[in-house]
Amino acid sequence: MLVRLFVLLITALLAGGCALPGKGLEGQALFQDEAARERALKIADVSVNSGNFLAAIDIYQKLLSKNKVDETVLFALGSTYLKAGAPQEAVTVFENLESVAPNNIRPHLGLGRAHLFLYRPEVAALYFLKAIELEPENTEVLSGLAIAEDMSGNHLKARKLYSAALVIAPDDLSIRNNVALSYLMEGKYEAAVNSLSELAFTPQSTPQIRQNLAMAYGLAGDETAAARIARLDLDPETTNNNLKFYNMIRRMKDRDLLRRFLLGPRLDSTGET
């Protein structure tokens, strides 16, 4: 399986099971009072963290049947749809939340993320800008807008936004990683290698960051270094497949198509990654 970049604050989506809620969640008694609501939310949170998205969605929908304007539940439901690979459903939920709480940052953040998944960077940017008006120093929002700019090919503008976020959170590895990936999408492979090399061997580093460094070396044409880094986390067969993938995308002339490949598999209106 090829390792592909996925520069999102929205994270790499988890492939999870889809078991339905257990017998203890049947009926409406679970949702009759505030204490029961809190218990249900905790159960849903556990389900999301275990990749059991349908179970969580079922709980959220039952909670909304009791109170359709519950802002916390609406945001949780929209976010879970995103993690489940259903961005169009997430858009519908976040639009409902926006009508309920237009001055809350959460619907704008959620709609921005959902439109990123739908590869609609211009639309996503509009929502992130609304969110910035409400919370100008929110690093998630600044990073989301930066990703939208990277998707649109505005890499210098994206990196200025990442820099603004790093002033607020200088040790945030995900933001620093995204700066490097911005260089990568622009074709500035040496800058990407240098940026990722500063991150890849720190105690806080992750396999994703190391594999991003391997890709940067691969796109720069240094297959020896790419293979050496890739093998830190991958088996030989996967490493070889990735080297072939790097070679393929290195030859691409269409920059927008290259960005789409580097951003990972995208979602259509109903599909899943």
UniProtKB/TrEMBL annotation:
TPR repeat start-end pairs: 71-104, 105-138
Keyword Acetylation: no
Pfam families from the UniProt entry: TPR_16 (PF13432)
SMART domains: TPR (SM00028)
UniProt keywords, alphabetically: Repeat, TPR repeat
Keyword Repeat assigned: yes
PROSITE patterns tied to this protein: PROKAR_LIPOPROTEIN, TPR
Matching InterPro entries: TPR-like_helical_dom_sf, TPR_rpt
Name of the protein this chain belongs to: Tetratricopeptide repeat protein
Taxon lineage: Bacteria, Pseudomonadati, Pseudomonadota, Alphaproteobacteria, Sneathiellales
